[in-house]
Design a protein that fits this description.
Number of strands: 0
Shape: rod-shaped
Helix content: over 70%
């Protein structure tokens, strides 16, 4: 713990300038390194947060893909709509993929019949 008596001479009148300047210099060096490390960690945090968001999105999409057939079988297509809507963007991507995967064979059959 730092006390004011550490920087005052024994006579109580003069200041120990050497000790005071040493502490001020040390505090400045400490603040510089702490700021440098903080800036470095914030730059490292950007890709980590991006990776975290991507893994959360992928986990939600995989969860929707694996759970959607069970929801459709147990409760029907009407019950699957809120389930997919609650999944957010991942549910939208999965639903759009299902629609496009279904539309392609239908378009292929219709073009072959003509």
């Amino acid at each position: 713990m730092v006390e004011i008596s550490d920087y005052i001479a024994e006579n109580g009148v003069s200041i120990r300038w050497g000790r005071l300047l040493t502490v001020i210099f040390g505090a400045g060096v400490f603040a510089y390194f702490q700021g440098t490390i903080s800036a470095f960690l914030s730059l490292v945090n950007v890709p980590l947060e991006l990776l975290s968001g991507l893994t959360e999105f992928a986990a939600t999409a995989v969860g929707v893909v694996y759970d959607l057939p069970a929801v459709v079988i147990n409760r029907g297509f009407a019950a699957a709509v809120p389930y997919v809507a609650d999944a957010g963007l991942a549910g939208y991507v999965v639903a759009l993929t299902i629609v496009l995967a279904t539309l392609y064979p239908i378009a292929w059959v219709v073009s072959r019949v003509r």
